[in-house]
Design goal:
Strand content of chain B: under 5%
Oligomer: heterodimer
Number of strands of chain B: 2
Number of domains of chain B: 2
Radius of gyration of chain A: 28 Å
Number of helices of chain A: 15
Helix content of chain B: over 70%
Distance between the termini of chain A: 29 Å
Shape of chain B: elongated
Distance between the termini of chain B: 26 Å
Largest sheet of chain A: 2 strands, antiparallel
Order of helices and strands of chain A: HHHHEEHEHEHHHHEEHHHHH
Structural class of chain A: mainly alpha
Number of domains of chain A: 2
Number of helices of chain B: 15
Strand order of the largest sheet of chain A: 1-2
Structural class of chain B: mainly alpha
Radius of gyration of chain B: 27 Å
Helix content of chain A: 55-70%
Largest sheet of chain B: 2 strands, antiparallel
Chain lengths: 433, 366
């Protein structure tokens, strides 16, 4: 225990570690505020549009009514029909925009979400009734799965009554899913209209987790805290050799050094993820832990008992869990992923004394494992993309029910333990020559 | 010159850089080999895509026939006429894909989309490709026929210029540049960690001169790396890939719906890569001399590069922001109007960074 505390004390005494930590905190806080400003700009654009519409549309309607009277006097029935149709559309538009404006101003998000759910649900019901997808984006149909999941999500958000994620398309706020098959210009437009921004702390974290921020922060943590052996084992600083002459068991020393580095890395990652939550207390708050998160359930069982290997956007199932449940699973996977990545980094540091080289090798190895090796339950790098394991996207898209959180914890944990054993075997007779 | 060669000796003795160069070559070669083995997949992908489109059209035709039984209308008849023609042309296209005659394939694809554009005018008629994309593909195919070049799959092609483009998109990005700096930056940061910088500062050499020598050494290492990437991908394409015809005239769409030839794309890629690499080295030097510690320097570098990438991913692609150019492929195709001003921006930013590094280095003592 004493050696462990001593290693922790040595870590805390290093100015470079404090500077790296402060930089990291500033970086993540900066990222949160930058994202908040972008989200706020999207929201303000919406409010400006709603505000201007309440002036522009009545003016247009007044002009249209004048044109209608003139057309009636002229006896132009086709034009009268056309203008009447236009007036009906604009009156509905004005009603919708006024409804949104009034409810956003009063903070009545439940009403807004309920209205959005009605838009989405209408599309779902029409599509089901005619067995044909009723909505397209620039001539490419929206996936039926996306429509169904988006409607269900909006219903749950309406029941919760909280401010949803900020999104460019606030009329029909689709939730992007893996069933989307857009390409070309349509894909660009789809991505722009469905990109979601989380202003609140928890929603911001949910927004950035799919972008591999967790492995990035873990890599930084390993880079900062994983060098307590390699920094004492250079040709200039042979501090490691001093331990050989002390009455100190190698096993004790190894675990003191390893565990201190691991503890600091775990704490570092946790602190970094708490920074946006703390920052959000000064902006929109942390958000609700009941917010729905989409989980893919894949194809339903065939009545004949056959396993299907085709995704079906009309019938494939899904469910929603709360963001609180999502984070508790992500936290658990993150902890085990930290053990895995830190152990590999530590093993590398026992062979190569340059932290930058170790970080580069770990990064290249992780990238190789994620992109080149197949996504299977036994490939530990499958679980680096925590979001797509927790929401079961990998399991459903790959028709591999073995890619689960439980298996991920076991595989990462097992390889982490093997790496620790290898580290110890290398460390046991480690002498700087 | 001797001092620069001495820095090079230090780089090679570290062994990391030669290994990094070898790994880069293995990556390029591995990618080419993978593409070479996956050539059949290109036909399979095209087949699947057009078969799926034909299946959709056939299902719509069945529905139209049922509605026609209830009552005929001009719209339904028109939809049936063009739908049937579209289905036939799609079948023909699938046949030409199998036969491998690329000129007939391109021409047939044009006819498919021209028919599809007529088809989707009718209510209830749906085709899985948007009208804008169909018009773009027609324009591309016509251009390819004019230049006498087959259409390439940008992910799996072994055509020299397109393979080089793929390598650029995979390597010339924040990850590639950070890898290079992690490997080469050691010759600067290691001296601070080992305190050998104190001995260097006793030598009769100006600090600024020493900093400049480091800069030249690292940049020349970067140039060697870039030369290896572009050179090896070019040679693999020329010797083992498809290099027939005027391959460097392949038309590539930009975001402004204009074409840029693949040769011009590669020239811009080389210039942007070199410019951004020197800018990144300038940034590394400033951070290294400011913080004088490996961990802090590279952590700061990682955050700055990640921050620059975030700005562009959020759509803040400003001509005067040097980080706009760290995704080389994206900056050439998404913001073609920024060339060549972007190069000037990078060099001005580089001089500013070197100036700041000189200011930091001015004072005596550590």
């Amino acid at each position: 225990m004493k050696y462990f505390l001593f290693e922790c004390k040595k870590m805390l005494k290093k100015k470079s570690i404090w500077i790296a930590m402060i930089l990291s905190v500033v970086a993540i806080a900066g990222f949160y505020f930058f994202n908040y400003s972008v989200a706020d700009r999207v929201h303000q654009t919406r409010m400006l549009d709603l505000e201007n519409s309440q002036i522009d549309i009545p003016e247009k309607l007044a002009q249209d009514r004048i044109d209608l009277e003139e057309a009636k006097k002229a006896g132009d029935s086709a034009k009268v029909l056309d203008i009447e149709r236009g007036i009906a559309i604009y009156e509905k538009m004005l009603e919708d925009k006024t409804f949104q404006w009034d409810n956003i101003i009063s903070g009545n998000w439940a009403a807004i979400s309920e209205w959005q759910f009605e838009q989405l649900n209408n599309l779902v019901q029409i599509s089901i009734s005619q067995n044909y997808i009723a909505h397209s984006i620039m001539d490419q149909q929206v996936s039926m799965f996306t429509m169904r999941a988006s409607a269900e999500e909006r219903k749950l958000v309406a029941e919760l009554g909280v401010e949803p994620f900020v999104q460019w398309d606030y009329y029909i706020p689709y939730h992007p899913t893996m069933y989307d098959k857009h390409d070309g210009k349509v894909l660009e437009m789809w991505e722009r209209s469905t990109k979601r921004y989380g202003k609140q702390g928890f929603y911001f974290l949910y927004q950035v987790i799919p972008a591999f921020i967790i492995p990035f922060i873990i890599l930084i943590g390993c880079f900062v805290f994983g060098n307590n052996v390699s920094s004492e084992a250079t040709k200039k600083k042979r501090g490691m050799n001093l331990y050989a002459v002390l009455p100190l068991k190698r096993r004790q020393l190894f675990f003191a050094k390893y565990l201190s580095g691991l503890l600091f890395t775990l704490s570092f990652v946790l602190i970094i993820f708490c920074v946006p939550l703390i920052a959000s207390l000064f902006t929109s708050g942390v958000g609700s832990l009941q917010y729905p998160v989409l989980i893919y359930d894949g194809p339903v069982e065939s009545p004949f008992g056959f396993e299907t290997i085709i995704l079906n956007e009309w019938t494939d199932a899904f469910q929603f869990i709360t963001i609180g449940q999502y984070f508790s699973t992500v936290l658990l996977m993150t902890a085990v992923l930290i053990v895995f990545m830190f152990s590999i980094y530590y093993l590398l540091s026992l062979f190569i004394k340059n932290p930058t080289v170790n970080a580069a090798i770990l990064l290249i190895g992780t990238f190789f494992g994620m992109t080149v090796l197949p996504k299977t339950a036994y490939n530990p790098f499958t679980y680096v993309d925590i979001h797509r394991v927790v929401n079961r996207e990998f399991a459903v898209a790959g028709f591999n029910e073995a890619i689960t959180v439980g298996n991920g914890l076991m595989v990462l944990g097992a390889i982490g333990v093997i790496a620790i054993v290898l580290c110890y075997l290398r460390f046991r007779r480690y002498v700087v020559e | 010159m001797k001092k620069i060669l001495f820095e090079w000796k230090k780089i090679t003795r570290l062994k990391v850089f030669p290994v990094f160069l070898q790994l880069t070559f293995v990556f390029v070669f591995g990618l080419f080999f993978y593409n070479h083995m996956s050539q059949d997949q290109i036909k399979v992908k095209k087949n699947e895509h057009f078969t799926e489109l034909r299946k959709d059209v056939s299902q719509q035709l069945l529905r139209v026939e049922e509605e026609l039984k209830k009552g005929s209308s001009m719209g339904l008849r028109g939809q049936q006429h063009f739908g049937t023609e579209l289905s036939a042309r799609l079948q023909e296209l699938i046949g030409t894909i199998q036969s491998g005659d690329w000129q007939v394939e391109l021409q047939t694809e044009i006819e498919v989309y021209e028919t599809a554009i007529q088809y989707i005018r009718y209510d209830g008629a749906y085709f899985g490709v948007s009208k804008i994309d169909m018009e773009r593909i027609i324009k591309l195919n016509e251009e390819l026929l004019k230049r006498n070049l087959p259409k390439e799959d940008f992910d799996l092609s072994t055509q020299t210029s397109i393979f080089m483009k793929k390598v650029v998109s995979l390597v010339m990005n924040p990850v590639g540049f950070v890898m290079l700096l992690f490997v080469l930056g050691l010759i600067v940061t290691k001296e601070f960690d080992d305190n050998t910088i104190r001995q260097v500062l006793t030598l009769p050499m100006a600090r600024v001169e020493y900093m400049f020598i480091k800069f030249v050494a690292i940049v020349s290492g970067g140039v060697l790396w870039l030369a290896l990437i572009f050179g090896s991908s070019y040679l693999l394409g020329e010797l083992l890939g498809r290099a027939k015809g005027n391959v460097f005239q392949y038309p590539i769409y930009t975001s402004q719906d204009t074409f840029i030839s693949s040769g011009k794309y590669l020239i811009e890629a080389i210039l942007y890569s070199f410019s951004f690499m020197t800018f990144a080295v300038g940034l590394l030097l400033l951070l290294a001399y400011a913080f004088r510690n490996t961990i802090v320097t590279f952590s700061a570098l990682l955050f700055i590069m990640a921050g620059g990438w975030l700005l562009t991913s959020y759509g803040f692609q400003n001509m005067f922001n040097p980080f706009t150019y760290q995704m080389v492929d994206q900056s050439i195709l998404q913001t073609p109007q920024f060339f060549p001003t972007g190069l000037a921006v990078l060099f001005v930013a580089l001089f500013a960074l070197l100036g700041a590094t000189m200011m930091v280095n001015r004072k005596r003592g550590m």
